[in-house]
Each structure stands twice: as structure tokens, then as C-alpha cells.
């Protein structure tokens, strides 16, 4: 409930929250450190930190490359936890882990929850763990009060959305379109209808992700969902213009 | 929850992105429907006997049997399938299913290229659009297959992420699928991936074992003592093993890629070595070659089709139960067994299949001449000409390629 | 004298050097013995169904039938034979005969390399020594087959005399035979050459027609209206035609290599063009492409296996009787038909076989949808990858070959 | 009978006759002319002139190449007949044609016999025409008195030799060994037994060919057969040393 409450608090002051995405260890932990600082300073409301995985099945080219490069530089899961601990200790906003299930599985699910809870992680986004496979995961999420962020997709039926919402906590991650991360999304009538369906079924704040890259995109979401997620675009920006470009970019979004 | 549908012991499952949930629901439903529709299996058998040449023969390898002085060696000839490998069984079956589901496009991953060629062939036959994902390293290892896929009208996309081999091609195919699930069916090439793929692929491949079980009795008079099959994902092995699972006296032996040797780290042995551990990736839970963080490791094999980090959850379960024994064959042993088989029997096994030959040849002498063993020859070696000619350092082949290369370079 | 044994009408005979007289006497005797021994044919069928995959399927080409809007097109799948062509039928049969004769070495000529690979395969299976003669030009056109022959343990001798193609390989094989007739059997690859070769090869290949005749009735309900086969020497054509010779309503169509066109002089059409005349060479009398002095002329075809000056005396007789119609397909038409077949049916015919497809596609529309035609697909196109990739000017294939060539050149 | 009689006459003066071989038009008709002249001058007793054929199935590499080169230079059958006419008119020894059957067949067998007889050819050697296929040929040979030279091989049975001898005229061409022209032959006990069998069955003079290249070889034949045939060795000699070497070579043989 912690994350949900924190978001409710934040939403008292803002009509839309911003969640940004980083891949841990890419281009380096030092760069991550600077990027996170800039994000927090320029008003980002929550940050999902991706622990890199060799098989990022649901990600697009930009994030795949970031995962690969980070691993190639030797990034370990333990380092990711340490870095996360440091960020959480330094910055007052909620931090989440995004990764694939094998990272938890191999670490030991119970141990991973325990260690993540110990450092103050508030939520997990695991795109390859549907609730059907995540029975123990969902129980542990409750036990450790780490929100299991579940995903709605445009292909989800109302019925399915309700099943997911019942198991989720914190917020619902609404994937704006079919496909993987990093491509353009068109915010059209079909999209608005989809978000309305999400709202109807969710009973939790809605985050909209996949393909959000500028103020116009954020405006399209404002009033329809609570959180705009900036993922691949963040990485692209740091790649092209360096960490110092993050602050101005974020400030211009809202 | 956890709901144990799609599990074999503790292995399997369906770890899929939410966007595919509905697609899998429909897929499971369609599969469930045909699974219990006897006309579907009849349609499948008819297609396989008129478009491919099932039943494929069971060949008595008289010369090698005599030479090794032990068991009578029989070879199940999946190489004689249309497109040259057992992959046709799975693909044509899925083609019929896709047609029933009303989809118009298929995608597939491929390692050795055999599954890609088979899928492109099926797509041509059924009139589907087709995209094939293939690790860039495999594109180079299996160029003739790439050429044929393109001629068959498929788009071949070289995958440059990760280790640029089979596992990365699978990821790439999933990425396509989550984008185009409405129009598209993903034709998984082996008994891996999220449920219902393992069950589906094992079902279509069971045609191998059904035939072999009958054939060995007709031709030899009784069941074999052992059955050997190479194991990449495990589809040809599951195919033939299913014919003998209920006969405990028939020992089933899966042979993995030993690469440079099990102690070198350069291999793809998940169950014959101790390097693998339980994990979840590519949509299912199995024994993966991964590091202590859960990152998948680079694998190595001379045979592109065995060069894979995971293995069928069904086989892991049978291995845990002690029903299937696992062994590994090194690249070097594979080349020698291939050479011996070609020279003595006039049969050219694929590099993948040659792994099964290695182990069978090692063990044939332990058995008596009134016993039989079956080697599942999953495919033919034609596709491997570049790799084989290279491995044998064939000078006239090299000269030929150098000349052709010069000729083409001069045209530019 | 003249004694008309071994003649078909005025064609055939046995124009052999005296040194082979005794060899042919024994050969005729051995053939006569097995010809009338029903156990031999049973042994042959058993071998072909366990070592190769006979009966080969008859595939309904639904897409092309629909596209052309005429007859239902059926394809007799000789490509699914072990080694990938109908050549296996002849070769395995002769292998059984050689074993009965007690000889220990076989020699053969080869054009496309298919007969060479088949013979080398048979030799490996039967434990015979093996030498293959192949025109130097064909060695270059069909390099993959050369590689496999060598891996199969055969010695491949490039023939540099004459036009360096099939006819010269035949001469070279005869020269070997007159030297080593005691130990050696010459496995002639087609229904040509001195008696009893045409009869022998036609007999073994008749298995195609026997099967096809049954299959078309089972699958289509009645006999076909027309049967198409490419004609090099004529063995695959004779093979399938024999199944329908006694049904006058079935029109039989042989398709020769039209090369650059019948008026260009660059072709290998003996009966579809007017360039050939009666002659005697290579041990038999037939219609040859020769000049007014009786010197054999250079022939041309994109398909090495059709690039031959002579043609089966049996077919010439059937042609004279009006029983078999002859047509020709140009290289260009062949590439187009190949492409169409690959894309629409997922089937890759050999360049040779593609000639039959050309003519069938031209004529299918003249017939009604309740009629059937059969195309004899004599072999698969894998062997032709260098020629086909070249003909299609495939850029990624070229790039691949250039790279490989550089890699090999750097190793030297 | 003409050839047989001529040979009988020659054998009254010599214990062994020499027959040499040339390929017409190789290396050129001019060279042929000089070679024939030298042969006759140095005592050759009869000459077989090979009309080149594109498929010299029974010949070895040296003669194959000569056939090919001659054809590549454009040699025609008509030219061969004209050249033969000139030789026969110029030199008093018997001349034979050696060629493959297709040359006669395509020319027209009857016409070929008529034209050859008209210029005085005394025999034909056609290695790919066994008597079974040569019914008309043998009749025409009688009609035109052109000796059909038939061939005995080491593989011929006694019975077969008798059949051949009955159809032959002039002499019998005994092939010294298996194989094609141009390789070495070893004149050993088996060879002597073979020649004895030939003698027994033939009733005609015997010529021994295939692989005879020096005086020693000729000596091995002397007393056992009537004619030694020098084939490929003649061509090799002209190739290597030119036409002028022919005289001395022949003189040294006997
Ligand atoms: C000929 C052949 N055999 C075996 C395999 C391995 O696959 P599986 O283990 O699923 O049979 C492949 C894969 O491409 C193959 O092409
Ligand atoms: C595939 C194929 N088809 C046809 C032929 C032509 O031979 P035939 O006319 O004897 O069938 C060949 C000869 O090599 C061949 O390889």
C-alpha cells in the first residue's frame, strides 16, 4: 500500500506524474547517479530502475542495447541493489525495480524481496511474470509491501483487466500499444477508448508507457491517466546529449 | 495459482508478456480443439504423406553394425522429409492449425536454418506471409538455408543482439509477435517456449516415434534396446522417444552438443554437464546455461541447431525421473562420426544429427548382435556443406570458393 | 546379323569395342537372370523402401492449379529419394546386380552430379570402390555434388577432353571400363548407351510410373490427361511414362533443354528441334546433335543433367510412333518456372526438373479442372544453389561467397 | 582379298611388318604428308589413317588430343578422303582407314565404301562396330574388297575369336592388353599365350597393337605375329621431335 499512498500524496499537488526509466550500469553507474539526480531535481515523481538481463524479451532496440552494454561492462545484480540503496537513501521519491523474472528466480525470490524491501524499493515491474505464474510472487509482494505493478495491454479484455487489477498494487502500467518499448505511439481515439476501459477496470492509478517522448504526448495523457512513463526516450537522450540534458528535458515535459 | 497447466514436473509454464495473454488464450483454445479432433490428425497424416514422404524409412546400417560388432543399428530417416529434416513435421502441423485459426502471417526463429526453411516452405504452401529471425552468426554458418528461405518468399531478419544465435532469434520473434499478434502466429521450432508450445510441438513430432515403434518390430522383430537422438531444443528427441516412453526396457538417450569439451565452458550441454541450473527465460522454466546472476551464457557447438541455452521442459522432467539419459558429443567426435557414416553407409547426417551417431557408435559394441538400437537422424547434412567443407579443410572446395569469390568481386 | 536384340524400332543396339564383348555377355546374362527372378524385384523394392523412401509421394500442387485455372497439377516427388533425385532408383538397382555379379568396383559418368552422388552413395552402402567421371565444366557447375562424392569415398575425375560435359564423361568411363572390365561395372546413369543399359535402366526407373499410376487413381480418381518429364538421357521420363504407355488417352510429353532458344544453336533439344540426326556414338544408335560429318556438337543448357548430345533410343522410337510428344524449355523459362514453383508450392525443383514444370504450366490452362496432369519432379534444386543464386544475381549470396573466398585466400 | 594378298607378298621378304598410325589433319595435313613420306621411305609396310571423330571412345589421351586438335582446326571427312587419295597415288604400300562407325554412318555407308574403294583404300578398322552390328558393313566390305579388320582382345574367348575370324579379312588386329591406346604393354608369358590363342583361331595374319614403342617391343612380337603396330608412339614422336624424327625411329625398330 505504501506506493499507492505515496502516489496519492503526490497527486494532490500535480495533475500528472512523471515516471522515468534507467537501465542500471548503462552507460555506467556514475552516469546513472547523475541522471537520477537530475531527474529528481527537475521533478520526476518516481523512477523505475531496470536490472539488466541478457534476454530482454519485451524490450525494443534502445533498451536491449543498454541491457547488453551494461552486462558487457560487468554489471552484477548485487551492484544494482547497492546502487538502488544509495539512490533511495539520497532521494525522497519512490524507486521501483523493473527486470525479468529470471533475475529474481535465480537470486531466490524470497531473498530478493527481503533485500529489496530492506533498501526501500516500493514496487516491482516484471513483464514476463503473469499472475498465473506469480502466485508466490504476489504473496511475497504483500508480505514485503512491495507493489506488484501489473500490466494492461490494448489486447486485454475487460475481464482480464479485472483479474490483473485484483492482483496488482501501486498502479497499473498501461502499455499504450502493441509491440515492444521504444517505438512511436499514436494517441488517437482508439487509445482514449482503451484508457477509458483501463480506468473502468483498474481501481488503481494508471501509468501510460511505451513511446512517450515529448510534452505533446504527456498532454495527451493528462487528465486520462495519473502517470506518464518516459522510457526509451530517456536513454536515447542520455546517449545523444549526455546526462546534463536530462534536467531541461524533464522540465519541458510538464 | 500457481496453476500447474503446462508444467512437466516443475518445468515449463507460460511466462509471457501480458500483451500476449489473449493470443495465448485463443491459441490454447484452437490447439485444444484440434487435439481432440481425430479428423485433424488424419488431415495432418495425409498432408505429411503427400507433401512430405511419411512414413520415413527405418534403415538398417549393416556396415556400421558389422564394423562395431554389437547391436544392429537402425537409422530413422527424418532427413528424407521434405526440406530435409524433422522440422517439417512440426511446421506443417502448425500450418494446418494456423489455417484453422484464420491467421495470415507466420514468424519463426531459426538456428540451423532448417526450421526457417521448413516454415518458409509451409508459408509458401499455405499462402502465408513469413518472416524468419535468425542470429547473425547462424546466417553466416547456414548461408544456403538463408538463400532458400528468401527464394521461398520469406523475409529473413538477421538478429544482431545478444550472442547472435538461436536464443536471440527467439527473443526477436517474440518481439515481433507482441507487435503483430492479431495477424500473426509464431511457429516455435522446438519443444520449448511457453505452454502450449512444448505440448504442441511434441504432439506433431510424435509421428516419428509412432512410425519407428511399428517399423522396428516389423523389420527387426522386437523393440530396440536403446534409442538415440540429438537434443537442441529437444523436438526430434521428444518425437522419437514418445514412441517408446511406455516401454521401460527401451533406454532413451539424448545427446547434447559437447562443443570443445564439457570442461572448456565452450559447449551447449544443459543436462549432460553440470553447468546448467534452473531458470526462467524465453517464456518457460527449464535448465539454462546461465551465470549465478541468471544471465544466459554463450554456448558453442559446430551444429547451429544445438547451440542453445535452454532445453525442453518435458525432457528435463524425464531426465529428473531417470527416464532419459543425457550424454554429450564434442565437435571433433561429431566430425569423425559424420565422416564414418558417410563413407560406410552412404548417408550424410546433419551436424546436429551426427551427435546422436557419436553416442550410438560409442555404445553399440556394448550390446549383442541380437539387440537393436535406433538413431534418430533428424536431418541431412547438405545444408552444412560450408561448415563441413571448412571443418575438413577441403582444398578443392576452398579453391572453388576463392575462384567464385573473385568472379563475383570482379562483377561489382 | 543384323540381329535386332537391343533395338527399339531402328534405335539402340550395342556398338561396343571388342574388348568388352565378354563383359557384356556376362552382363546380359546376369541381367537376364534377375529380370526373371521375382525375388530380385522384391529385394529391390525392399531396399528402396528402407534405404530411400519409396513410394515417393504424389503432391497436389493446389496453388499452381488454382493460379493457372486449368488441370489439377500433381507432382511426382522423386526429389524425396535418398540423394535427392530419381537417379537413386537406377543406381541402387544396379548395385544389387553388381553384388550378384560379384564385382567390387563401380564407375560412372555424371553430368549434374546427381548420378555421381547416387553411385558414390550406392558404392558406400555396398562396399564397392568407386570412380566418377565428370566433365570439367560440370565439376564447376555442380561443386557441392563433387564435394559429397569425395566425402562418400569416391574418386572424382574431371574430364578435360571434348566439350568437357556429360558425353565426354561417358567416353572417359568407357575407357576406364575397357581397362578394368574384370573388377568393374559401369553404372550407366540414364536410358542410353549400348544394350542392355537402356532396358536395364528403364526397368529400374519403371518403379516411378508403377507408383504414379496407382497414386493418381487413389488421389484423383482417374488417370491423368498428360504426364510431363524432362529429358536428358531420358531415364526419369521413361520411368514415369512406363506407368501410362498402355493408356493411349494419357498424353506423354518429354521436355528437352531449349537453352538460349531453339534457333540459336545453343540448346540440347534432340527431338523438339530439327537440328539432330541419326547417328551412332557412345555405343548406341540414336538421334544426335551432330554436324554433317557426324561430329558431335556442343550443347548448352543451364541444367547440367540435360546438357547431352544423345537421347534414349526407347524415347526416339516412342517419338517416331507418335506416342511421346517432345517440347523444349529455354533457360529463361526454366528460371521463371522454378521461381514460381518455389514461391507458390514451397517446392524447389532441380533445374533439370524445372523444364517439365515449364511445359506443364504452359499447357495446364488448356485443360479442365476435372482433369489432372502429372509433372515428374526428377530431383531437388539444392544441388543447384550456385547456379540458381548466380542466375538470380542474389546480392547477399555473392557477398557471402566473396567474404568466404577472401577468408580462404588469406589462409593460404 | 587384296590386302591379305599384299601382306602375304610383303611377308615373303620380311619376318615382321610394321604398321604405323596417323591422325588425319593432326598436327596438319602438311605434317601428315611429310610423316607418311618418311614412314614409307624408312620401310613401313602399311599405314592406318585415322579420320578424327569427336568421340574417340576406344582411344587414349594422346590420340584423343590429336582427334580434338584436328577437328578444332576444321578437318572434314572429305578432306581426309582427298588426302588419302593423294597418299595412295604417291606411295606403293597399302593404306587403311581407322575411324569410328558414326563417320561412315553419317557419310552413308554405301557411299563411304564406294568412295574409299575408288581411291584405293585396302581396309577399314572400326573399333566400335562389332560384327553383330555390322551385317551390311561386312557385306559391303566384300563387295568393295576393302578388308574389314576385326579386333581380338585378351578377353576374347576362343569361340569368339573364331566368330570374328570368320567375318574378318586382311589381318586380325590383336589388342595386346586391356585398356585404350597409348599406355605401356608388358610382353610377358600371359601375352605369349594370348597370341598363341589368336594364331590358333585366326587363319589370318596377326597384327599386334597397343603400347608398342621400341625395338624391344617389336622383337617380342617377331615370330609370333606378322605385323607390329606403332600407334600413339608415332604421334608422341612427331609432337616432341617433329616429322623428321620419324625416319630414324622407324629404321631403328626392325
Ligand atoms: C537437423 C536438426 N536436428 C536437430 C535440431 C535440434 O532441434 P531439436 O532438438 O528441437 O530437434 C535441429 C535444429 O535446427 C536441426 O536442424
Ligand atoms: C535431377 C535430374 N533430372 C533429370 C536428369 C536428366 O536425366 P534423365 O533424362 O536420364 O532423367 C538429371 C541428370 O543428371 C538429373 O540430375
| First and last CA, distance of chain B | 62 Å
Molecular shape of chain A: globular
β-strand percent of chain B reads 15-25%
Tell me the series of helices and strands of chain A, N- to C-terminal: HEHEHHEHHEHEHEHEHEHH
Q: What percentage of the residues of chain A does DSSP assign to strands (E)?
A: 5-15%
CATH topology name of the largest domain in chain B, in short, is Rossmann fold
**How many distinct domains of chain A?**
1
CATH architectural name of the largest domain in chain B: 3-Layer(aba) Sandwich
Whole-angstrom Rg of chain B: 20 Å
Whole-number tally of structural domains of chain B: 2
Topology, number of strands of chain A: 8
Largest sheet of chain B: 6 strands, mixed
List keywords for this structure.
heterotetramer, A: 254 residues, TIM Barrel, 12 helices, B: 412 residues, alpha/beta, Rossmann fold, 6-stranded mixed beta sheet, 4-stranded parallel beta sheet, 17% strand, globular, binds pyridoxal-5'-phosphate
Structure, explained:
The complex is a heterotetramer, with two copies of chain A (254 residues) and two copies of chain B (412 residues). Chain A is built from twelve helices and eight strands. In chain A, strands 1-2-3-4-5-6-7-8 form an eight-stranded parallel β-barrel, surrounded by eight helices. In chain A, helix 5 packs across helix 6 and helix 8 packs across helix 9. In chain A, 54% of the residues are buried. Chain B is an alpha/beta fold. Chain B folds into two domains: 155 residues, Rossmann fold; 216 residues, Rossmann fold (3-Layer(aba) Sandwich). Chain B is globular, with a radius of gyration of 20 Å. The model of chain B has no long low-confidence stretch (mean pLDDT 96). Classes of the chains: A alpha/beta (254), B alpha/beta (412). Chains B and C meet through strand 3, helix 5, helix 7, helix 12 and helix 14 of B and strand 3, helix 5, helix 7, helix 12 and helix 14 of C. The site of one pyridoxal-5'-phosphate has 22 residues of chain B, from helix 5, helix 10 and helix 13.
